[in-house]
Amino acid sequence: MPEKSIRIISRNEESYISVYKNTPAPGQVVAKQMARIAQSFPKLKKNFYASLTERVKTMGICEERLIAAVDHCIENFRYPEPMVGEILAHDKLIKIYTYHQIIDLIFRGDKQSYYGVIKGTKLWVSRDEAERLGLTYIVK
Predict the structure, then answer these.
(1) Across 33-47, 62-76, 102-116, least confident range
(2) Percent helix, strand and coil across the chain, each to the nearest 5
(3) Beta bridge partners of 95
């Protein structure tokens, strides 16, 4: 079994996993992050926080991802007001490969040592990308 539950995300016929846990953030963490947004964007309406809080809970966003998303919004937002979807979209994704895709990459010249298996799965990731994003549950 992998150390974190894995959620596979498909985009443009490629598959990814998030480096973040799949454990929902506690209510007090969500409230604290809403307060941080309110302090940084004082003109936002109360229904913004209600919508964002509801979506965070429904999506099961973990504490680490929520904090990173709020940090990213506070540090990088350029428009008058952030949108709920922009905060929720923040994620760190790693491309995953099947065994057959790895064999094809090796056949084309990549080295098998460039890739690692995610513990408890039959999925492979780039070791460099996993290290860069802090993914710690690949087989060494």
Answers:
(1) 102-116
(2) 45, 15, 35
(3) 16
